[in-house]
Amino acid sequence: ETGVTQSPTHLIKTRGQQVTLRCSSQSGHNTVSWYQQALGQGPQFIFQYYREEENGRGNFPPRFSGLQFPNYSSELNVNALELDDSALYLCASSLRGRETQYFGPGTRLLVL
Amino acid sequence: SQELEQSPQSLIVQEGKNLTINCTSSKTLYGLYWYKQKYGEGLIFLMMLQKGGEEKSHEKITAKLDEKKQQSSLHITASQPSHAGIYLCGADHGSGNTGKLIFGQGTTLQVKP
Fold this sequence. Notes:
- The complex is a heterodimer.
- By secondary structure, chain A is an all-beta fold.
- Chain A is built from no helices and eleven strands.
- Chain A has strands at residues 5-7, 10-13, 19-24, 31-37, 44-50, 53-57, 64-68, 74-78, 87-94, 102-103, 107-111.
- Chain A starts with a strand and ends with a strand.
- By secondary structure, chain B is an all-beta fold.
- Chain B is 0% helix and 54% strand.
- Chain B contains no helices and eleven strands.
- Chain B has strands spanning 4-7, 10-14, 19-25, 32-37, 43-49, 55-58, 61-65, 71-76, 85-92, 101-103, 107-112.
- In chain B, strands 2, 4, 5, 9, 10 and 11 form a six-stranded mixed beta sheet that branches. In chain B, strands 1-3-8-7-6 form a five-stranded antiparallel beta sheet, with no helix packed on it.
């Protein structure tokens, strides 16, 4: 059983650029959730994907968007990057109807 | 919206000592999760509690959800340096297992050898 993987591990971008982060869910899991964790804070829910559709969204603007693919892997896209977007981005996978989410190691994004 | 408050924010204990971290919710908790995080890394699942009064243990870590389901505690017995890290409590947004979690701000634990 493979765990949740994310790529890249680290990324540096400048303000106004666009970024794509990737997540491969744990084997057998069909739901992926994305979180943003600023330094010294708990993770904040961005959105969740199930069956390739967005299934709930937190308090994040539309420039945060995502995709889920038939193999349940997922992408998080952020357009028009702002300095405050600098954070650790975590994805978590789960099996719909089961409680526990398993997290990947995260992607550290720095916006200059 | 529901908020989770963790206390203390940080904790330094001597190896071998016991400690407790608390997580208090402004609303009824339908699912309460405890995770551990090493600095800058992903979250490691520890335990999940659903029923009021429920208590679960794994190795030297015990978590409990109070009867009113608005507070949870995480207790570590005979702490070791390997217990050091950031402990996060998370609660499900909805009344079921939606998987959309809100988290407390975390409690940073240091264990001095």
